[in-house]
Design a protein that fits this description.
Number of strands: 5
Distance between the termini: 6 Å
CATH topology: STM4215-like
Number of helices: 3
CATH architecture: 2-Layer Sandwich
Oligomer: single chain
Order of helices and strands: HHEEEHEE
């Protein structure tokens, strides 16, 4: 039986980012994680919210990546977002229990931390998937 689509997407995205030399040149692999709260490292990618939308034949899964950098500006967050997008463009994709018809970064958004210590980027990833027959 297949897992929940957004969970399968979360696992695949986390593994792809941790294996990407372009991403890990900017964020250490141990800084790519699924957890709550503020960052513990100067640079990290927190795999955040997920969502699955179901149709008769296909489903759409979403994953949100939160990019945190300890800097007064937004430049490094934008560099990390670009590295994530490049890593996620590579094909083919294999999500546990699902055939992946399309996977792409659909949105990036950047903001400053109110205290001015961190910059925060948000990357939205979308996958159109179909559950594999058991």
């Amino acid at each position: 039986m297949a897992s929940e689509p957004s969970f399968a997407l979360q696992q695949a995205v986390g593994a792809r980012l941790a294996a990407s030399a372009g991403v890990t040149a900017l964020v250490p692999a141990n800084g790519i994680c699924d957890r709550s709260g503020r960052p513990e490292l100067d640079r990290c990618i927190i795999i955040g919210e997920g969502q699955s939308v179901y149709d008769d034949f296909y489903g759409t899964a979403y994953a949100t990546l939160h990019l945190w950098t300890k800097e007064p500006g937004l430049a490094t967050s934008k560099e990390i977002a670009g590295a994530c997008r490049a890593a996620l463009k590579d094909r083919p994709w294999s999500l546990a229990g699902f055939t992946t018809h399309d996977l792409r970064v659909t949105n990036t958004h950047f903001m400053r931390d109110p205290q001015g210590e961190y910059s925060h980027g948000v990357v939205t990833v979308r996958a159109i998937v179909q559950e594999r027959a058991s």
